[in-house]
Each structure stands twice: as structure tokens, then as C-alpha cells.
Amino acid sequence: MNSVNPFDTKSGNRPVILSGIQPTGGLHIGNLFGAIKNWVAMQDEYQCFFTIVDLHSITIKQVPAELRRNTLEMTAMLIACGIDTDKSVLFVQSHVPEHAQLAWVLNCYTGMGELSRMTQFKDKSVQHSENIVVGLFAYPVLMAADILLYQADMVPVGEDQKQHLELSRDIAQRFNHNYSDTFKIPEPYIPQTGARIMSLQEPTKKMSKSDGNTKATIFLTDSDEEIKNKIRRAVTDSGELLTEKDFEIFSVNQESFSEFIYSRPGLGNLISLYQLATSKSLNEIGKDLAGKGFGDIKSIVADAMANHLNPTRTRYNEIRKDENKLKEILSAGAEKAHAVAFKTLRKVYKKVGFYAL
Ligand code: TYM
Q1: Mind listing the pLDDT tens digit for each residue in 23-62?
Q2: How far apart are CA 288 and CA 352, in angstroms?
Q3: How much is the average pLDDT of 166-184?
Q4: What atom of ligand 1 comes closest to residue 209's alpha carbon?
Q5: Does residue 110 sit in the same domain as residue 50?
Q6: Which protein residue's CA is at the shortest distance from atom 26 of ligand 1?
Q7: Are residues 69 and 158 in the same domain?
Q8: Which of 15, 57, 169, 316 has the fewest CB atoms within 10 Å around its CB?
Q9: With b meaning 16 or more CB within 10 Å and e meaning fewer, what string describes 231-261?
């Protein structure tokens, strides 16, 4: 077993990864392909911290019992997807108080103007106009605290988190400039394919767990039949069919594929999903999909996606049963995370001039 102990000085030499996910509803294939797949792939090379960000979740109204259940289910699902807790630190954000503590300090180094430019805040305050709370506005500062506490070198996320990451870098640079080097400046890691999985019903919108239309989002707990039905009913256009030549061009020119996805988002999304589910090259995909009608394409993609997700769901159902084991994992994760976070916070408190006992 390739076990990494974050207290071990040798593992301290590895570059650090930190990423997070909200325990609101289940994991969907946008989370899987935009983020989690990369988390899993990075575990051998990096010292990884993965956090289930319950503090972030309450910026939108939650039902307490559901939030509690979702946190445990998210833990089980992340393990089922391949997060190996012998290699990586998996923990719940509220179990490590330094996140809220550093966020408060960073709030005092972040401008109101900077936060008002965040597109996610603008979008969410329209969606939740009856309950726009201070926490929603300050959300990106808490995210910066998550990242900076662990001195992360890299943050694997989907495209939608890019702006938040840029803000984290700005806050860290400002703090370092005001005092002295305190935080490492984190780099975003955004995958080429999968960074933005689109809704199956409105392919110009990103796939999201809070979509009111249940046909728009594929959850990792969906049955084979549900997955297939959702893909077979996906919205596409009525444009021309693709030829093998088109796929050959896509395979040598990534930009032309990106342009295609932009101009025909429904079909482009399905092709990306097929690519992600099968790990085939665009050339090989051409052999499977070129010249086929939309109905056939959807059936092929539907079968591939159901086959791809089936083993994860089976593992999840097993892992979810052992609640005590999950609690043990989270408790060990919190302890390891706290040991690292504590050091950064202590440094920050000293720099800003808090009187230490
Ligand atoms: P969250 O919980 O919305 O999503 C978790 C991860 O999934 C990615 N993602 C997608 N990728 C591709 N296509 C989609 N349709 C799609 N939907 C979601 C997100 O980009 C993200 O990487 N603010 C974060 C959680 C967070 C965090 C952090 C992330 C809190 N602290 C520190 C990184 C570092 C969020 O709400 O992600």
C-alpha cells in the first residue's frame, strides 16, 4: 500500500493539492469529470487534502437532517470514486475550526468591490433572491481560507471555480505583500475535457445538482435505466450529422473541437461525455459515431455512460453501509488536516499582531 502520512517529513516534499465539494445533494457527472477524476489521478504524486465543505453549504438554506445525511453520503461516494484515505486526507470542513478562523482574518483583507464582481454570487443571489445572506457574499473568502491553510500548490476544479481561485491568489498575494511570505500562491488545475459538463436539457447551462429539472442532471446514484433514459432524452439540435473526417479534424485540432462544442452544445456535450466514459480518442470516437443519427448516438452514449458508472455505484452501496468506518475515516482526516491548518493559522495570527499567550 502506498500510504502517505502528512505528518511525515518525506511526504511534506510532495506538492500539495487541496480541493473541496459541497455536500448539497448527490455527486453528479459534472463533479465527477470536472473535478473528482483529477483528484483520484493526483493522489500518488501529490499530498492531497480533499474537503467536504459543509460551511459553504449553509450559504443557501439547508434542511439540517439532509445536510447531515448528505455529508456522510458524499464521504462514501468520494471513496467509491477512488479517493484512497491511506494516501489522501479526506475531511469535513466544519471539523477543522481553522477554516472559519482564517476566513475571518481574510475577510479583513478583501474588498467589497472584489466580492461584488464574483459571477457565482450574482447568479446565486438571483436564484435565491429571498435569502441573500452575508455568508453567500463572503463565500469566496472562505474558499481562499480552505486553500491557503494547506499551502496548496494546485487546486483541481471545474471551469466554474476559476474566478474564485483567481481571487484566492489575489488575497494571498496581498497578504504576503502587506506582511511577508505567508501563503503559497495556488495554481488552478482545470481539465481540458470535462471542465464544463452541460445540462442535458439546456445545454448552454452547466449541469448542476440544484437544477429543478431532474432530467437535466445525471447523479452517480442513478440506476442504469435512469442514466440511459436521461441521455436518450437529452436535448440536441437538428443540425448536420458528423462525418469521420470531422472527427479527424477534431483530433488534430483541439480548438476546432472546442468551437464545435460552442456552436452545437447539446451534441458537443454528448460527444464529450462519450469521450470521458470510454477514454477513447476523438479518432476512435469518429469510428463509433460518425454518420449516425441523433437517436443512435444517444443510445451509444447512454450505454457507455451506464457501463462506466455502474461499478462506482455498486462500490458506493457497499461502503455506505458501514457508517462507523466512515466516521473513523472522517475523524482521522480531521486530525491530520487540523495539524497542518493549525500551523498556518498560528503564523497568520502572529503576523497580523494578535497577542499570543
Ligand atoms: P461544487 O460543490 O459546486 O462542485 C465541486 C467540483 O465540481 C466541479 N463542477 C463541475 N465541473 C464540470 N462541469 C460541471 N457541470 C460542474 N459542476 C461542478 C466544480 O468546479 C468543483 O470543482 N466552491 C466549490 C467548493 C469549494 C472548493 C474549495 C473547491 C470550497 N472550497 C476550495 C476548491 C478549493 C463548489 O461549490 O464546488
Answers
A1: 998 899 999 999 999 999 999 999 999 999 999 999 999 9
A2: 60
A3: 98
A4: 17
A5: yes
A6: 20
A7: yes
A8: 15
A9: beebbbeeeeebeeebbeebbeeeeebeebb
Is residue 209 part of the annotated active site? The answer reads: yes
Domain that includes residue 191, residue range: 16-195+323-352
| pLDDT score for 12 | 57
Does residue 55 have its Cβ closer than 6 Å to ligand 1? no
Catalytic residue among 87, 124, 298, 336: 124
Instruction: Please write the tens of the pLDDT for every residue from 329-345.
Output: 999 999 999 999 999 99
Number of domains in the chain: 2
**Is there an atom of ligand 1 within 6 Å of 319 CB?**
no
Question: Look-up: residue for cell 445538482?
Answer: 209
Q: How far apart are CA 27 and CA 77, in angstroms?
A: 8
User: Does 9 map to a domain?
Assistant: no
CA distance 208 to 31: 9
CATH code of the domain in which 59 resides: 3.40.50.620
pLDDT in tens, 186-202: 999 998 888 899 999 99
Minimum CA distance residue for ligand 1 atom 22: 157
Residue 124 designated active-site: yes
> Are 307 and 230 members of one domain?
yes
Residues 234 and 99 in one domain: no
Active-site choice (37, 162, 209, 343) = 209
Q: Quick one: which atom of ligand 1 is closest to the CA of 158?
A: 20
Ligand 1, atom nearest to 161 Cα: 20
Q: Which three cell numbers stand for residue 344?
A: 498556518
CA–centroid distance, 33 to ligand 1, in Å, is 11
Same domain, 299 and 220: yes
